[in-house]
Amino acid sequence: MTLLAMRQYMNSVAARHEHMRGDYRLKAWWKTASELANIYAAEGQPALIQYTDRDTNLVIDEFGREPNPASNYGTKMNVLQFVLQLRYDHRRTSVTHITTNMRLEDIEPRYGDYVADRCKEMFNFIEFEGDSLR
User: Fold this and answer.
1) Cβ(60)–Cβ(97) below 8 Å
2) 122 and 60 Cβ atoms separated by less than 8 Å
3) Distance CA 85, CA 78 (A)
4) Peptide bond into 67 cis (omega under 30)
5) What is the DSSP letter of 92?
6) How far apart are CA 3 and CA 56, in angstroms?
């Protein structure tokens, strides 16, 4: 919900300020982790490049809920590990936002120590505590 509110805000800023409509900082790919895994399964690794390029912002919803590994014609890959490793290289020119129900200590066993360590640098962690409102 927080990222959806941010998306609405970014859209309203772009609508109010004509000169900012082309500003890449107001644009982002919005994908669930499962959608990214399914893109790989259907089209292979080249289809993921648009989500890892420089100057491309990305919001990944439900990180940790995707099938892992994903398979493209028998070639298995941990898609989110791949995407985050490449996005780390462009962290100064592109922004990545993630929503997840995972705790930080759950990231390493699933994605490896490299990605877990990079997550500490790439992200600010906001934890919502209390009863679920679902």
Assistant:
1) yes
2) no
3) 11
4) no
5) T
6) 17
Interval 7-28: pLDDT, tens: 676 666 666 666 555 555 556 7
Q: Is the pTM of this model over 0.85?
A: no
Tens-place pLDDT, residues 47-66: 999 998 877 788 899 999 99
Fold adopted by 27-122: Rossmann fold (3.40.50)
Report the alpha-carbon distance of residue 71 to residue 30 in Å, rounded. 22
Residue with tokens 């890892």: 52
What residues contact 25, with CB distance under 8 A and at least 6 apart?
Answer: 57, 95
Task: Label each residue of 3-59 as H, E or C.
Answer: HHHHHHHHHHHHHHCHHHCCCHHHCCEEEEHHHHHHHHHHHCHHHHHHHCCCCCCEE
Strand-pair partners of 75: 72
- The dihedrals phi and psi of 91, each to the nearest 5 degrees, come to -65, -20
